[in-house]
Amino acid sequence: MSVVVSRIVLKSAREIELMRAAGRIVLEVLQALESRVRPGTTTAELNEVASRMIDEAGATALFRGVKNPQARFPFPGSICSSVNEEVVHGIPNDRPLQDGDIVSVDCGVRLRGYCGDSARTLVVGEASPAVQRLLDVTREALSIALREMRPHCRWSTIARKMQVWVEKHGYGVVREFVGHGIGREMHEEPKVPNFVERGRSKSDFELVPGMTLAVEPMVTAGRPEVEFGDNSRWPVVTKDRMWAAHFEHTVAVTEGGLDILTAES
Ligand code: MG
Ligand code: MG
After folding, report:
1. CA 1 – ligand 1 centroid, Å
2. Ligand nearest to the CA of 63
3. Is residue 37 assigned to a domain?
4. What is the domain extent for residue 253?
5. pLDDT band at 4; cut points 50, 70, 90
6. Which end of the chain is more exposed for a tag (fewer CB within 10 A), N or C?
7. 92-130 pLDDT, tens per residue?
8. Are 196 and 212 in contact (CB under 8 A)?
């Protein structure tokens, strides 16, 4: 079986350090937003904080201005903020968050030509046990991947472990959106699914040193199917309106294992 690596751009140690610098800004933004989110906060306020921090760091927000052929307008936010049944690509707005809501905040920046991308689902006030379990299982799905990733293992081996973990808790793995290669561009080859595609082994790949990936499980409390929000491409919501969670890190595969570029070092 051939391994498709030709379109995957491997990064030098210097480039990985540049991506770490971008990842550091993303980490600081997400930490700042996590410390601010409480009942009554709006996602527009979170977006404002993120915009200011990204500007002050001399970076560019990756999501702002993203065009999609199906969308009526380019994405207007510096962050994506997806509340409750919204999975990803939520537009920051003026609706106050309620106690017990969850908000998935996704932040990507480019600094000196290199990108970092990370997301986490935040709890507003206090989460119900059921919601906390959804977040814990999703965060652990990402942790499973980060623990297992090392040179020369195949991505499908890791994706299967994530999928089995999520589904044994009765949750769904979103199929329409997947992780991705990242570097100079936010989205590079390869696609990094959080599930195993039957009969699609050609899209599988082997992890090799220098590969930089955004790993991002998106998990639904109910069925995995999603649809698009009213009148535009944003946000993506679950079809059954059950809630969803999303955790993401940008990582580099190294000779020694894995280097997480959007976490505390
Ligand atoms: Mg992201
Ligand atoms: Mg991403």
Report:
1. 31
2. 1
3. yes
4. 3-260
5. very low
6. N
7. 999 999 999 999 999 999 999 999 999 999 999 999 999
8. no
Q: Angle of helix 43-56 relative to helix 13-36, nearest 10 degrees?
A: 140
Ligand 2 centroid to Cα of residue 106, in Å, is 8
165 falls within a domain: yes
Exposure letters 12-38 (e unless 16+ CB within 10 A, then b):
eeebbebbbbbbbbbbebbeebeeebe
- How confident is the model at residue 136, as a pLDDT? 98
pLDDT at 165 over 70: yes
Ligand nearest to the CA of 177: 2
* Threshold 0.90, pTM exceeds: yes
What's the CATH number where 222 sits? 3.90.230.10
Are 219 and 134 spatial neighbours (Cβ–Cβ below 8 Å)? yes
Q: Which residues surround ligand 1, an ion (CB under 5 A)?
A: 106, 117, 119, 248
| Cα 152 to ligand 1 centroid, rounded to whole Å | 25
Q: Which ligand is nearest to the CA of 181?
A: 2
**pLDDT tens figures, 8-29:** 999 999 999 999 999 999 999 9
Point out the ligand nearest to the CA of residue 179.
Answer: 2
**11 Cα: distance to centroid of ligand 1 (angstroms):** 20
Please state the domain count of the chain: 1
CA distance 210 to 48: 34
